[in-house]
Write a structure and sequence with these properties.
Elements lengths: L2 E5 L5 H11 L6 H9 L3 E8 L2 E11 L2 E9 L8 H15 L4 E7 L3 H9 L3 E10 L4 E9 H4 L1
Parallel strand pairs: 4-5
Antiparallel strand pairs: 1-2, 2-3, 3-4, 5-7, 6-7
The protein binds coenzyme A.
The site of coenzyme A has 19 residues, from strand 4, helix 3 and helix 4.
Length: 150
């Protein structure tokens, strides 16, 4: 599999929504992705395999800080390092935009995502009680200091 990592465009939204709906209990809708694509303070990076979107990551930017609110790899592509490559590529993009910190939240039970984040140097900085719904669950808050860790 040869992947391209590039910025999402409007024509990717349908595939992104399908991947999100398959993975998430409270999925984002097409309008949310449309807004992220057209905003000066957000971007979406996709991993593409010959026209098929294998995964995507959304970032909000408030320089020099950023937030990763949504990252998903399509079920059939998981466990092959795509999430890690997608996030590593995104970190380089953020760095080139003058961003030096990424914040995120993750469900306590989300072992694959927690492994992904710690494998790239994210550190736990706190917990939020009952942060998630459907089902209700605590969040782990994590942070990556890009300049320090790269
Ligand atoms: C989290 C997610 C994006 C990971 O994508 P992926 O392409 O499968 O991840 P990778 O193959 O790149 O693996 C990244 C790291 O996590 C580890 N990992 C991946 N899946 C794992 C699992 N099920 N259990 C334990 N570790 C796992 C890998 O071993 C790797 O660590 P390493 O580099 O130290 O070996 C994917 O599981 C997903 O889309 N989940 C549903 C959506 C979601 O939960 N998003 C995050 C919301 S906070």
């Amino acid at each position: 599999m040869a992947f391209d990592f590039r910025y999402a465009t409007e024509s990717d939204i349908e595939q992104i929504v399908a991947i999100e709906e398959e993975a998430m209990s409270n999925p984002w809708n097409a309008v949310a992705y449309q807004e992220a694509i057209s905003s000066d303070h957000a971007f979406i990076i996709v991993a593409e395999d010959s026209g098929t979107i294998a995964g995507f990551a959304v970032f909000y930017l408030t320089a020099p800080e950023s937030e990763l609110p949504d990252i998903v790899v399509s079920e059939e592509y998981r466990g092959h390092g795509i999430g890690k490559k997608l996030l590593a590529h995104s970190i380089e993009e953020l760095k080139s935009k003058g961003i030096d910190i990424i914040f995120l939240e993750v469900r306590v039970s989300n072992t694959p995502a927690r492994h992904l984040y710690t494998s790239l140097g994210f550190e736990e900085i706190g917990r939020r009680k009952y942060f998630y719904s459907n089902p209700v669950e605590d969040a782990i808050c994590m942070r990556l200091d890009i300049e320090k860790d790269r």
